[in-house]
Amino acid sequence: MPSQPFSRREFLKRNSLTGLGAMLTPTLLTEKLQTPPSREVPVTFSLAEPPALLGGKPVRTKPWPTWPIWKPETDEKQLLEVIRSGVWSRAGVVTEFEAKWAATVGSKRSLAVVNGTNALITALAQLDIRGGDEVLVPPYTFIGTVAPVIANGAMPVFVDVDPETFQMDPAKIEAKITPRTKAIIPVHILGLPANMPKILEIAKKHKLAVIEDACQAHLAEINHKQVGTFGDAGCFSFQNSKNLAIGEAGAIVSDNDLLMDRCFSYHNYGNPYGMASGVIGAGTIMQGNKQRITEYQAAIGLAQLKRLDAETTLRNENAAYLKAKIEKIPGIVPYKLYDNVTRAAFHLFPFRYKKQDFKGLSRDTFLKALTAEGIPCSKGYATLNNMPYLNDAFQSKNFQKMYPKSQLDFKRYVERNHCPQNDKLCNEEAVWFTQNMLLGTRADMDEIANAIEKIYTHADKLISLK
Predict the structure, then answer these.
(1) Within its chain, how far is the Cα of 305 from the centroid?
(2) Which CATH fold would you assign to the domain 75-301?
(3) Pairing mode of beta strands 209-213, 155-158
(4) Residue pLDDT, tens place only, 157-177
């Protein structure tokens, strides 16, 4: 992640120290949802005030809602029971969390694993995606989407994005399919659903597996069906910044019993499905790994799950309100949802910044100015499709044995996987706000919009800054 002016890594570092003390109750969330805009405290603001970056008064000085949320009086009972029981390895509380997560997303089965990255590794392995295979992935995502493809020995092939939605562009998929293509990983990046009906249509036509990366998209929906439940498997992350935060954990969901049985075996050393953790001499039946989560992680997840729906509703309402305000500012182009999206998750709130409408003000200076106004922001992802980690994999002994030299020529690989729309997003246009900001009030959203408008008004004064 880029570190300037405010990265998600920095966000996590700051909030890891304060998260346990954060208190935002379901009651408070409900009150926020029911509070009409007319009852909000008016925001005092003047466009005549010079930008904070040039010595003016910041639009905002208050702290933003912290993340993750933890309320001892309601959240700690089960966690303390688990800690005091001494049963810390996978047992009944993990099973309870899996059942509730499956019910929450509308899937038949759920398997908890150590993180979202390993959820993808496990799902790919049990769908028999191996060396010599190609997997279609979007370039606008976190490394945790692509690393599992390489870990299974497969070759990632990048499909450019639709910049309006930030998602893999279905119109560009078929041109990337070869006889070696075995799967597509659509990523509901930023918590905005990908175009699953069209992707599934293409996958069915070419007999490709579909593994949804829903790591940022808890409770997001297409036609009232939750993402993660469209493909052969869906993978989620519960890492500290995610909308359901456990610290580190993930889950696989699917309606395919055979697939889930195999995933369970894989996550428990390859021992038979249903075999309890810690059993000696179990008669291991397949190649596996150790991906089990602990009972206390599951207890944290169960506590967080109680608030997830209300928080998601609040994020959606604030995102819609903020979008309606800032899309009126020239040069600010907020995200677009596909017409069939009935709910987004808004792990991040993205928009595109057009510097020509800000008198040529660079995105970096825009971000610095916005941060100075008390609005933390980020330019987001760097281009994944040309980074050195790919060539490092290509030079490994395994890849050298599995692929012809022509496929491992890194320069030619980068040329074949050029994604110009993604380049523009990463290098010029994308701006993010983190999901915790959307747990504020409408007055908070007004301050974001006011800060952007202030920078727009004074862009000519900021243009000389480096």
Answers:
(1) 17
(2) Aspartate Aminotransferase; domain 2 (3.40.640)
(3) unpaired
(4) 999 999 999 999 999 999 999
